[in-house]
Amino acid sequence: MRLASLKLAAVAVLALGTVGLVANQVFAAVPTVKGIGKVFQVVNFTASPTGAGFVSQVIEVPDKQTMVVTDVIFSNDEPSAPPASLASLRCTPTGGGSQITIMAPVLVAAGQTFSHSFGQGIECGPGTKLVVVLEQGNPSNVTGWHITVSGYIRKGG
After folding, report:
1. Mean pLDDT in the chain?
2. Residue 137 domain flag
3. How large is the average pLDDT for residues 67-72?
4. Which of 9, 47, 44 is nearest to 28 (CA)?
5. Cross-strand pairs, 72
6. How far is CA 112 from CA 76, 81, 102, in A?
7. Cα separation of 143 and 103, whole Å?
8. Which band of pLDDT confidence, cut at 50, 70 and 90, is reported for residue 79?
9. Is 56 exposed, middle or buried (0-12, 13-18, 19+ CB in 10 A)?
10. What angle (nearest 5°) sits at the alpha carbon of residue 52, between those of residues 48 and 55?
11. What's the pLDDT at 5?
12. C-beta of residue 87 within 8 angstroms of C-beta of residue 132
């Protein structure tokens, strides 16, 4: 009877180790933060920019709602990219005005990936657009980037 318990414990430890190894390689395809309030829409934005500079709108936030960003992944697969390759998230008022940086620029070197899950989420309020901004040392040659932004739209502002 004791031998069976030891075998079961060994199998359980092996299974947990395997799950941990696999989970370490999985990126968030859905928001990882549980929504506060009613979640209206799950947002999964992906892009692979090319050309001169890059500012891309992720979503326009409707009135009386808030965009909550839970996860970002920035991959710089360009082997010859300049060392100053920056990626950031900003909220831009739809009627014009100053942008608000909600995620400061992070350096993503050539061949590297930056990924982060925000514990509480970061927010863009009603009447704004969430945008991704890439800044490179050579702004005329933005290639090899893969961008993913996940989150949700919730009620309230």
Report:
1. 76
2. yes
3. 95
4. 44
5. 116, 149
6. 6, 11, 22
7. 22
8. low
9. middle
10. 60
11. 56
12. yes
The amino acid at 131: V
Contact between residue 67 and residue 124 where contact means Cβ atoms under 8 Å apart: yes
3-state secondary structure of 21: helix
User: Cβ distance 50 to 56 under 8 Å?
Assistant: no
CATH number at residue 89: 2.60.120.1330
**pLDDT tens sequence across 87-143:** 899 999 988 888 899 999 998 888 889 999 998 899 999 999 999 888 766 555 667
Q: Is residue 111 part of a domain?
A: yes
94 is a domain residue: yes
Range of the domain at 40: 29-155
- Tokens standing for residue 141: 């040659």
11 dihedral zone (left: phi>0; alpha: psi -120 to 50; beta): alpha
Is 46 inside a domain boundary?
Answer: yes
